[in-house]
What we know:
The structure holds 2 protein chains of 2 kinds.
Chain A: E1 7-9, H1 13-22, E2 26-32, H2 38-52, E3 57-62, H3 67-72, E4 80-85, E5 88-94, H4 98-109, H5 117-140, E6 145-149, H6 159-170, E7 176-179, H7 184-194, E8 201-204, E9 207-210, H8 212-221, H9 223-227
Parallel strand pairs in A: 1-3, 2-3, 6-7
Antiparallel strand pairs in A: 2-4, 4-5, 6-8, 8-9
Helix pairs in contact in A: 2-4, 4-5, 6-8
Chain B: E1 2-4, H1 12-25, E2 29-34, H2 36-39, E3 54-60, H3 69-79, H4 81-85, E4 92-98, H5 100-105
Parallel strand pairs in B: 1-2, 3-4
Antiparallel strand pairs in B: 2-3
Amino acid sequence: MSIPGNVIQVQNEKELRSALEEKSQEVVIFFWASWAEQCKQIESVIDDLATKYSKTQFFKIEAESFEDISEAYEINAVPTVIVAKKAKILARVEGANVAEVVQQVATNCGAANGVGSQQSAAESSSEFKQDLNTRLKGLIERAPVMVFIKGTAAQPRCGFSKKIIGMLNEQNIKYGYFDILTDEQVRQGLKEYSDWPTYPQLYINGELVGGVDIVSEMTESGELIEMIPEESIAK
Amino acid sequence: MSTLTTAKPEGPIEKIIRTRITQQYSPTELLVENESYKHRHHAPMQGVSSTETHFRVKIISDKFAGMPLIKRQRDVYALFKHEMQMDGGIHALALVTKTPEELKKK
């Protein structure tokens, strides 16, 4: 995918400052860090928005390399997206809140791009939902046996998550895990996607098996191990 | 129909749990235990004043016959969708869902 001309990876401070001073139009500034996984998702949202709002400039800044700018905008966390007009901050979205980023860009930059802010927010909102579902599906299918827990497999942060990991380990089952405490979007989105209100959640070959109670029953009855694909059983 | 009552007084949420499950499943056995006190000091529970957040529920009912485990539990969770989504509502609902035959086998 070629990068549109209105997306600028900031290389030096002057670049950004002069762009802001020259333009009386709104700009979008995206602060990221390479160690923050969620920035990747927001970056693709930014790229997407840039193609729709082609008259607006989208700046990407590696927060830690530009401390003065980060301080000036009071950046506390990444990802953070700021919509600014000259010296004024019109909107600030902290964290991987895709819906909010889309909404703020639509509201503040819609006019300049000749796009009605209401309409584009609704369109983008359903696209966002599609993107989220795609992401969730990808996560669920990341491994033949996939478990969504609170905490990590080595350090579960909840009794139920700890119990489910214990049962998988005892039966020599190889699995992938995802820590839902690290991602609020997945945490809430997956509950809706799978119509299951709690964590942990176990999936086998992309299908929800259930939570700790079901896994426990199936472990006792011997049913669980029968559902596990051969390649996921450690020899 | 036999029910076991817990030692602590029944709060409003516990009452709702018993009532709805009884109505829906006409259970031959229903056990509802409020385990909130066990989780009171856990980080996610800081600032939550409710004493009805974690429950352990055991339902023995014919209505589960022929239903896969996941459907049984989804249906039970669906009964409490509102209470599980609201602030200070039900945070965890541990479930045992069996038919009388299944209970005997154990």
